[in-house]
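Exam prep: given the inputs below (a chain plus flavin-adenine dinucleotide), describe the expected output before reading on.
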Amino acid sequence: MNHLVNDRPFSQIPNLRQGVAKGLRKSMQSGDLAANLSFARVTAMHILSEDFLRLELQGDDLARFAEGALHFRLLRQRHADRPAVWPRRGEGGKPLWPDNDAQLVHRVYTGRQVDADRNRITVDIYRHAGGPTSDWALSNPVGERIGLIGPVGGGIPPGGWMLLAGDETAQPAILRMLETLPPETEGEALILAGAPGREGEVVNRTGIRLRWLYRDRGDDLSAAVRAVALPERDDSYLWFAASKSEARDIREYFRTSLGEDRSRCRASGYWG
Ligand SMILES: Cc1cc2nc3c(=O)[nH]c(=O)nc-3n(C[C@H](O)[C@H](O)[C@H](O)COP(=O)(O)OP(=O)(O)OC[C@H]3O[C@@H](n4cnc5c(N)ncnc54)[C@H](O)[C@@H]3O)c2cc1C
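Solution:
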């Protein structure tokens, strides 16, 4: 389960006596669904490239995913022929996850585009080897009912000058920011992709310069981040997301080597 979201199965809540846990479990089984849980149907699947596919989701109450945090937890039932299990409403409104994780699969994704008026969300999924969620998405699950918990994680950071850098998993967030940040925003964006192909789709409404890096050319994301000449400005923000180990490395670079304050930088581990 990702560190960005504070949600645990109730069996893992410390100091919860066995009897209390049992009672809680019983009441939760019949209780309300988690407050920030919405449902949607997969209405379309598009292959975008060798590396990416897109799912279109249609729900009834997805407007809140257009505001604040950019991400959500995508929940799906592992076995369509078994009764569905969903998180219930826990203490303080937090989701209480069912113990039966074998049935419910959940991973964090970014709302690539959110149409609040039509209750539609588009999610771009990186096709990585051995990924149950990316394999599921590739199986063309049109018509399937899924859950969305959120919004979760970080939102669009403030900044007049921004460094936005990341790998495939960060690509949807970076592209959404390039579409939605104020047009006067300046900076550098670095996106690591497998190979050239999707550059023409980018809608960049900002003054941020976008540069693509390619794995098949041997480009190194961390080295490229360190090579960016940062301006002396009070309104800059440094944003990075990729594997956990790369994020650790870049967080150290931002905070220790550059001496950036936490309020002006963020390096997140999205996988690994
Ligand atoms: C805030 C946030 C936003 C995210 N947004 C997106 C998004 O919009 N699109 C997107 O595609 N992903 C996104 N991710 C990443 C995604 O949640 C993970 O890649 C997730 O692990 C995929 O789940 P899975 O079921 O396919 O594989 P898992 O069961 O989680 O992992 C199976 C194996 O694949 C490995 N693996 C996972 N991701 C990758 C990868 N990218 N490259 C290589 N190996 C990998 C794991 O380490 C593991 O060994 C986001 C993550 C976070 C935290």
